[in-house]
């Protein structure tokens, strides 16, 4: 059974059997440098990818916020229009009620003046 410390890390140059990875790697030969460069480029690429998705998510969140703000503004405008319609209709109701009261009073006045018996 191979111990955990014998497997080595990716890009460390250590072999799976716990060896140092060979004399060329130990001496800093071309193969070791290429492998180290690949590791550095891999890390850079991972960082770029992470940055790309971070920016993409940030842009998506900003767009969502903008869209929601537009929706809120549109709903506020609709609310204002509906409130104005309600106020207008309430004024119409009040005018109709006043007219009904006037008509009722005229009818009562006519009833007072009405004398069916002519002498």
- The amount of helix comes to over 70%
Along the chain, the helix and strand elements come as HH
C-alpha Rg, in Å? 44 Å
Count of DSSP strands: 0
Shape: rod-shaped
Properties at a glance:
coiled coil; mainly alpha; ATPase_inhibitor_mt; 119 residues; rod-shaped; ATPase inhibitor activity; ATPase inhibitor, mitochondrial; mitochondrion; 75% helix; 2 helices
Could you characterize what this model shows?
Mean pLDDT is 78; it is low at 1-5 and 9-14. With 119 residues, this protein is mainly α. The chain has two helices and no strands.
Topology:
Elements: H1 23-27, H2 30-113
In short:
By secondary structure, the protein is mainly alpha-helical. It has 2 helices and no strands.
